[in-house]
Amino acid sequence: MPYIEHDPTNSHTFKNHLLKSKRILALCGAGLSASSGLATFRGAGGLWRTHDAMSLATPQAFVKDPSLVWQFYSARRQAAFSAKPNPAHLALAALSVKNKDFITVTQNVDGLSPRAGHPLEQLYPVHGSLSTIKCTSIFCSYTEYNNFKMALTPALAPATDVESLPPNIPLTELPYCPKCGVGMMRPGVVWFNETLPNDLLEGIDDWTDQGPIDLCLVIGTTGKVWPAAGYIEICKEKGAKVAVINMEIDDDPHLGGVKNADWLFKGDCAQILPDILGPIIGSMDEVRTLLGDTDTFPATTTSGGPVTDTNNDGNDGTGEGTGYY
Length: 325
Ligand SMILES: [Zn+2]
Hints:
The protein is an alpha/beta fold. The protein is built from 11 helices and 11 strands.
């Protein structure tokens, strides 16, 4: 029976197993970014400016009201780009550097793992990224990566009154494709009713097929939703022990959404991961030295100048967040 509360003195069985583990897979959800100030929409009541956030994250919503959906994603881009990677992102990045047979499958679209210095070849962002935008024309395949502009058009500048209803921005003031000129751009995230990117899924399958798996880390996600749930089962079939790290582990019989987990660490993964991964990654000082100053964040303002990061306190708690859409 795994224990529920995180107790650093009682994590020695995990640490012993970690030291013996070669092939490790981590599954990450919104909880990974919680202490970076990015709340989940589910956790925030599921609302964005009176709208059900989940209902805005569909192709149908975008077709029906692109102005509203673009304002929603602009708010999420601004929150994500203003946030900073936390020690959990850094710990996973360091484990990746130390162990080339460790892969991370993340449902997060906030881009904080890449900014933490996580080796990209070991990172599978299966739900896309807020910093990716792509053309919606079926005749055009233009995709732009690493677009960190706070406002893609002047009309999408950060809202000053987040309590009021979003304004009805004319279609002509939304982002359009610079290549074909006719297609409206859309966020490069995977919406509900859309399929996950095949190349990433194949890459994960290739890795899981390569042999036994020693350890599966389920971080900041309940493990009840696909693809997380499916990958946990694959890891277990390959012999992996399972550790769950989450704020929301409770006493229900499913143990945080993972049946028969071997370890349950309840709490903020920004505190827990640096501790339990410590035998491999060392102290956080060592982690920062290992990773260097990785967050050379290329954010730009609408005028194109660099963002000075003097007041980077994440968001203001109004509910803009990331992790689910
Ligand atoms: Zn285009």
